[in-house]
Amino acid sequence: MTFGTVAILGPGLIGGSLALALAERGLADRLMIYARSPRVLDEIRAAGVQAELTGNPSEAVRDADVVILCVPIEAMPGLVHEIRDALKPSALVTDVGSVKGSVVRDLEPLLDDRALWIGSHPMAGSEQTGFAAAHAELFEGAPVIITPTEHTQPEAARRAEQFWRALGARITLLSPDAHDGCVAQISHLPHLIAAALVQRVPETSIELAGGGFRDTTRVASGPPELWTEILSANARAVAHHLDLLIRDLQAVKTALEEPVKAESKSVLLATLKAAHDARSKLPKKRPKRP
Amino acid sequence: MTFGTVAILGPGLIGGSLALALAERGLADRLMIYARSPRVLDEIRAAGVQAELTGNPSEAVRDADVVILCVPIEAMPGLVHEIRDALKPSALVTDVGSVKGSVVRDLEPLLDDRALWIGSHPMAGSEQTGFAAAHAELFEGAPVIITPTEHTQPEAARRAEQFWRALGARITLLSPDAHDGCVAQISHLPHLIAAALVQRVPETSIELAGGGFRDTTRVASGPPELWTEILSANARAVAHHLDLLIRDLQAVKTALEEPVKAESKSVLLATLKAAHDARSKLPKKRPKRP
């Protein structure tokens, strides 16, 4: 099975890994890659990826059966304006943005009747960025959330699911809003908190930090500009969950102010136990890049 | 060079790793291990550790030149009451507790004139516990904070430093209070926050979590009872830094409530940038257990 001609717009960590994974698994008859920057196109050419490279997004999508938007969220509406007249009406168009409410609201009206559109979010990646960090196994065993709306054509959902599954991903369907609430809790808020934690620590203490601190704050090494966009795009859900977290932390702080009281110890113990138990529900770790 | 007879009281993750490291490096002429539980003593016997095992702490310390207290913080004063009459006055006594202010305040008067006492905190370990998780390389390259006070005999500091250095550790000297503030920031608060984050996430979302969430919350799998004791013992410093963090988070929340404002984006970007830069100061990762 192949997906015909596949166009990847924006070959960064996710788009680049998609290109490598499609090539390795022989899932595309033709692979088109668009990047705005000639330097990035040179980098991909030098890596020997079997693909047609172009700096013109309309050219990339003209014959495409599947189009994957892998540019930053805020660049998506502009890019879709550029390509919409060149799309085949039968083309499946999806994206890999980390926020879905705003992306779907922006793109759905632009793509209605122009192509089969549905949002996707592969929950893969790392604090690294760019094509240099891309690898063919990124999606193996990774969760991918697909976000149908009332306007989504069933064929779009079916084909998107088939596409990600062929790359080894585990599929979950959520509405764009449910998706945004979920990733606020498991990705955006943890990122924000890791950053808030680490930025307070003086350099003399950082030098003493061990593996726990390193892991707890790893995501805070992600690109600040990209994450500012992600947090802004999902601001409502992140603010909501942040508010709940602040309330929890205030209760803990009150407990810490009277640490000898039995009641205080039970507040601490209850939080730590609930966390310990919840964490035991985490799916098994995926194997690292070989 | 050897340290003569070394007594390890409490062979859990840290104490057990100490025993394995001392044996592997040939740093003790005699190794005494005390554990309260016969089951733990059997486990160590079965592992073939070259040591004399006992369920009597006074017997363990009687001939010891170095005594390392590796029991939970709250068990330390009771244990020291038991052993103080059996100690050689020339013995170096130190501990591995994660909090130093309360430990030093509790133990210093008990050990004054009985032995050479100083507090230590090896910043090694993991969310795992018990002798089964112990390994001989735990201290290689790990920071160890030694906490002299105005009552500390210079010889105690010198010998403790020599001891930990022989196990491959990097030494830092801090007062007990400075230590507690430092670990509140790099260990206790991150632990508390990881727990607060993870305990709020519903199981359906946990299943979608990726590597970032796994790392950010890894420490929250640590034993809840042990961490309740640690947080209670360092409550003042943790509450202080938690208060500062809550203020930062409230500012971020205000920014998220008006995400389109340029000012809001700069609050987010400033936090993320400061975190990104601070994290680049982390020491190089130590090699994992082979």
Largest interface chains and counts: A-B, 92 and 92 residues
Counting structural domains of chain A, the number is: 2
Shape category of chain A: elongated
Assigned CATH superfamily of the largest domain in chain A: NAD(P)-binding Rossmann-like Domain
Query: What is the architecture of the largest domain in chain A at the second tier of CATH?
Result: 3-Layer(aba) Sandwich
Distance between the termini of chain A: 26 Å
Oligomer: homodimer
Structure characterization notes:
Chain A has 12 helices and 9 strands. In chain A, α4 runs parallel beside α5. In chain A, α4 links the parallel β4 and β5. A 6-stranded parallel sheet of chain A has the order 3-2-1-4-5-6. In chain A, strands 7-8-9 form a 3-stranded mixed sheet, with helices on one face. Chain A has 2 domains: 170 residues, NAD(P)-binding Rossmann-like Domain (Rossmann fold, 3-Layer(aba) Sandwich); 101 residues, Orthogonal Bundle (6-phosphogluconate dehydrogenase C-terminal fold). With 290 residues, the first copy, chain A, is α/β, with parallel strands linked by helices. The longest helix of chain A has 24 residues. Chain A is elongated, with a radius of gyration of 21 Å. Chain A starts with a strand and ends in an 11-residue tail after the last helix. Chains A and B meet through α7, α8, α9, α10 and α11 of A and α7, α8, α9, α10 and α11 of B.
